[in-house]
UniProtKB/TrEMBL annotation:
Gene3D superfamilies: YVTN repeat-like/Quinoprotein amine dehydrogenase (2.130.10.10). Its EC number is 3.1.1.31. This is 6-phosphogluconolactonase. Keywords: Hydrolase. It comes from Staphylococcus aureus. One of its GO terms (molecular function) is 6-phosphogluconolactonase activity. The lineage of its organism: Bacteria, Bacillati, Bacillota, Bacilli, Bacillales.
Length: 279
């Protein structure tokens, strides 16, 4: 049995973090707890026996750390709510487990926290950095919207997607925070949302929420160069739809992209060691 956790909004009926058990033999998911009360815990990331989640209390925003016990139950370690600039939409952990990264969609900012590598607790907010890039022409691109932040496969940088600015921005990082390195631009009104890297580290699959497309990009030293792009919905679909998540199968043979509105999952065959996709 495998324990898993789901984050949720808490404004209405959401209870925070839900715990479930995956029964792989019976292909079944059983809900074990109705929720660990953690406000606005919409995105989670796990580091062994510590779970990190987005958090908010009143106007104070940031992240929380929770200990996972032997039974899979959650216990609060600590919180770092050092900002009033808005709640995040994505969190990730550096490979060396020293830093936690957060993207804040509404305010178009990114945050970086220092972690205790022994206990998993959040020590401090190192930096909060606002994006200031030219934006696209779509009505939702009124200002920058950082939507994803994660370390690149070479370990040198973090890559940040900006839905408002149609680009990926890479930063160097250390104990002092972020340092701008490079930017990779995509088409106007793409709404660049998330990235999924191939295990070989040479290719990335960049999904664009507003244009409902996925780009195959070659990654090299902080730069992304688009090789090809594919629609994730039928060309004749004229309803309201927005691309959401992207995942690679464990064997790297298939790429899955979800579409909200069209209510579908596009499945692509991964070809040529990650260089091409085929629907």
């Amino acid at each position: 049995m495998t324990n898993g956790y789901i984050g949720s909004y808490t404004k209405k009926n959401g209870k925070g973090i839900y715990r479930f058990e995956l029964n792989e033999n019976q292909s079944r998911i059983d809900l074990l707890e109705t929720g660990f009360e953690l406000e606005a815990s919409t995105y989670l990331v796990r580091n062994n026996e510590v779970l990190y989640g987005i958090n908010k209390e009143g106007e104070q925003c940031g992240v929380a750390s929770l200990k996972i016990d032997d039974n899979g139950e959650l216990h609060l370690l600590n919180k770092c709510l050092s900002s009033k600039a808005g709640t995040g939409c994505y969190v990730s952990i550096s490979e060396d487990k020293r830093y936690l990264f957060e993207a804040v969609y509404g305010a178009g900012i990114i945050r970086m926290y220092e972690l205790n590598t022994h206990t998993g607790e959040i020590i401090r907010l190192i930096q909060e950095l606002a994006h200031d890039f030219p934006t696209g022409t779509h009505e939702r691109q009124d200002h920058p919207h950082a939507h994803y932040i994660n370390q690149t496969p070479d370990g040198k940088y973090v890559a940040v997607t900006d839905l408002g600015a149609d680009r990926i921005v890479t930063y160097k990082f250390d104990d002092n925070g972020f340092e701008f390195y490079k930017e990779s631009l995509f088409k106007d009104s793409d709404g660049t949302r998330h990235i999924e890297f191939h295990d070989n580290g040479k290719f990335a699959y960049v999904v664009h929420e507003l244009s409902n497309t996925v780009s195959v990009a070659e990654y090299n030293d902080g730069k992304f160069e688009e090789l090809e792009r594919h629609l994730t919905i039928p060309e004749n679909f004229d309803g309201d739809t927005k691309l959401a998540a992207v995942r690679l199968s464990h064997d790297q043979q298939f790429l899955y992209v979800s579409n909200r509105g069209h209510d579908s999952i596009a499945i692509f065959k991964v070809l040529d060691n990650g260089q091409h996709l085929e629907l």
